[in-house]
Amino acid sequence: MLGWLLQGNRDQALHTIYAIYSTPPREWLQAIMEEVWPILEHDPTYLALQTLHEELFKQVGLVERKLLDNLRSIQEVYEGGPPPV
Questions:
Q1: Cα–Cα distance for residue pair 19/50, rounded to 1 Å
Q2: At 83, phi and psi to the nearest 5?
Q3: Helix (H) or strand (E) holding 47
């Protein structure tokens, strides 16, 4: 749920809450989310976490790209290139 909130996806966060805790009515959860969302959206801590989340996601992409580049390099050096298809 926290991940969905960090992405700004209220609907998916509500869906996750409802899937885990199916006892409260969905309308009740929706009303709570609608009331607190404007506060959360402008909260400095939430905004900082959202920024960190985005930066972490970028870094994961860079690491993934470097890993694939290195694996291709190893494949080229030790196996003579990609396998024939």
A1: 24
A2: -65, 145
A3: helix 44-79
CB–CB of 18/3 below 8 Å? no
Model pLDDT for residues 35-85, shown as the tens digit of each residue: 888 998 899 998 998 899 899 999 999 999 999 999 999 888 888 877 776
CA dihedral 69, 74, 77, 78 (to 10 degrees): -150
Q: Whole-prediction pTM value?
A: 0.56
DSSP state of 23: S
Closest by alpha carbon to 8, among 57, 46, 58? 46
For residues 6 and 54, is the Cβ–Cβ distance under 8 A? Answer: no
